[in-house]
Amino acid sequence: MKLERSAKARVITAFVLLLVLATGVTLGVILERQLEARSISMEGVRDRGGGRTLPDRDRRPGDWSRDSSPRRPSLLVEQVGLSEAQKEKVDSIVGYYRVHMRTLHEEFDAAYMSRYIEILEATRNSIRTVLDEGQRAAYDSLLAEFDARMQQQRRRDSIGDRGGRPE
Q: Is the pTM value of this prediction over 0.70?
């Protein structure tokens, strides 16, 4: 009798674990799709390049404008059947406001980047207090590698923002 209960408990436990695993995988897939859809939507709002690849000088870090993937959304106005003349005018309008948005992004970065860095460093320092000496050394090494990659990416992006021209 005791053996039967033990086997039954193991079967129930295995079933519950499988159910939790399946639920986690399902929720993960759903969340990933929602985040991807939101990301595509937000990139469309940020860029509004109408599915065309932007010149390097008009790109911002993280823009989908570098991605020629068909998932990239086009302008809503293009769905109303624009003539070629209308397309040119719309492209001109989008280009005009893209410059203003880029300026706004630069102002935002200038105003808040120092606070962002302060919070990032405070977070990293708090994490270091939890780690032992060996873990701290490994963590610092990983952070140094990550920061170097990010700095390299920023350099590439800033060159792209200037259209490949040195300052």
A: no
